[in-house]
Amino acid sequence: MLGETQRGEKIKTMNISIIAAIAKNNVIGKDNDLVWHYPKDMAFFKQKTQGHYVVMGRKNYDSIPEKYRPLPNRTNIIVTRQENFEAPNCLVVNSIEAALELAKKDQQEEVFIIGGAQIYAETLRKGLATKLYLTHIDKNYDGDSFFPELNPNEWQVISEEKHSKDEKHEADFVIREYARK
Description:
alpha/beta; Dihydrofolate Reductase, subunit A; two-stranded antiparallel sheet; 12 strands; 20% helix
């Protein structure tokens, strides 16, 4: 995306993208963990976020198996209210806005909000997101963490990729990219 300064110079603006997998009933997790395993969705997540800044809440960071922390080939930023929280090889901040400022300062073209539920809700409530990459799983799951309801007047689907249930994926799912209207 390009914007313009008052003098007409082209300036880059940063896309703030939410990426998530969501069950039919908006579940995204249970007991601070995923409740499904969809390899094609995990590959999409990895491909989309590699080389970018990823912003997550502390609980989401804690839910990542230790051997995968920090997520490789990405700058991991953890948002927490804990004053002295430390995470090796990660940046730690106390607000989503502070995380976004770090990415902007480093001239990132796109930064990814990767969860959890509170971080997604706050990002949407504050109108910070410019894009969404949502995997919609055509199945209800039992869970205690939910993706917030989207306002259909704010978002439009710009692409989608459908996947059928198979031996590695227990339900049909579709990966949709949304842009703010």
